[in-house]
Amino acid sequence: MAPLLTFAFCIASLALVGLSSAAPPEINNKTYEYIVVGSGPGGGPLAANLARAGHSVLLLEAGDNQTENLNVSQWFNFNAAGNDPATRWDFFVKHSNDAAREARYLHRTWRKTDGAFYVGIDPPAGAKPLGIYYPRAGTLGGCAMHNGCLTMNPNDVDWNDIAETTGDESWSAENMRKYLLKLEKAHYNSTSVHGHDGWLDTTMLDSGYAGFEDARELTTLAAQAAGYKVSDTTSLLTRDMNGNQPNRDNLVGPFGGVSHINPNGRRSSPGYYVRDTVALNKYPLTLALDTLATKVIFRSTGTNSHKKAVGVEYLQGKSLYSADPRSSPNATGVSGKVYASREVILSGGAFNTPQLLLLSGIGPRRHLEKFKIPIVADLPGVDQQVADNYEAGILSLASRPVSVGQNIFPNFFKSSVGKIRDIYMWCGNFAFEGFWPGFPNTPASNFTSDYGPREYECALVHMNPRSQSGTIELQSTNPRDVPVINMNFFKEGEEEDLTAIYEGVEWVRSWLGKVDGGEGGLAPFEELHPCKGTIGKQNCTVATQKRYIKEQAYSHHASSSARIGADGDRFAVLDSAFRVRKVAGLRAVDASSFPKVPGGFPVLPTMMISEKATDVILQGLADEE
To answer: Would you indicate the residue range of the signal peptide (predicted)?
Structure first.
């Protein structure tokens, strides 16, 4: 994948020409019906939808507009987008409190004395540990502007569990599907009903089956390993992963991969939906870029003890948040206040929404008192129970170059410890071992290359992990400082989660071991990890492999840091209508809202809850009339 990264950065300078560099609009002391903080998959669609319904909306975005940056707009450049200083925010996290375990993480990042990054376990003298790189995006459209565009409706049980937990049947999988149909503009054939008039283009990726002999062999073997016949392979590769098939939570084997890109290969995302809504110049949507929300403003209502959110304090200026690689402590920004006559809605994402809540006096009493922040609402769940998918992979080198093009094919797998399918994977001619500055190119190559044309990987995402113990804490009361994040990987349910991932790896080995090993064939495959050696002839113990998975797992799908829950749940920050408890006029709508990680990729479900929040808010207004 190195050529893509190199090519993308070569063309980036061309793409940046013509991007909007206009100063943010004058918003200080103005009043709007709604203020939405964050333009990603949660906030962007919600702001555009409310404006299209006729309500005045101010959308605050700390980043700028990179919608015409070719690293962003051309979806196959997603690794370049993730490394582009114009779009990325650099977070560094811990996976545990075990210092020795953290030191064994192969892609740990350090800051060298010259200011450059070092990635590895043998840093040069004087280098300071930063932690494990966790990619985020600070730009119009949020993380949907640098992701791989995989678009997955979670398993039905993920939605049904929210309905059962809260007693709110509007969260059922059957009802939530209507929001998928509402937002999507599907460009592929399916046996299931889909939407074709929404703002989000979706297409089905080519598996390479028709054009590449290697792809045919590999996908056919995977289909057989999942219990299907050879003749089933072509139909499996167009099977709709976002369909509403009976018993869909237990359907395994190859699927067609759905992505939020249009038929011309251009990324489709909330960033474009917001941009286009503003450009029409007929809806009351004000977009304030380069505007960092720093605190929610509250006032006493006089009717009860709950305070009401009435506005937001902010700083305006470029690259003010310290996670932005272009940030400078010397750039102080211009402060201001803006007001909402109806509601403030936080959609900063799983890290920044809880940070803003804490800075505003909403969170655990002991956390707020530590920083001498006046308490508005004592909500213990704001910085606790952060969840994430575990990600891993089985990376091998074939005996000759793998010819599948740039195509991938997805699979679902059900482990022996899963009640439903619990592993999603995508396989192809790539190498992906996690995230670090310069990923996916190897640190050993000085970030200029990968493992070459023989590389073949199945990357795994463990859905519905049992551990949900991550924490997000303030570093200081300075809103420009990134929070301190500990994902607490495998703190709970370690054996079951490691077993699920290990069995997924073993399943891949089961069919890679059957690849043609004759003259000119792809086999044998030399596995690089998690068990080095010729596939079928390795001698690694299960315990050794599980230890490798535990120490080298990575992630980038954080959720649940301000989660929805039942009324009696002391860790529930939100009710089922996204309202922040113990205050009025404040909601949170983004990945932080989910009670647990939604499926394998949170981008689509977050867009779906954005549509649901639109309905909830508009219906509430209708009920008032």
So the answer is: 1-22
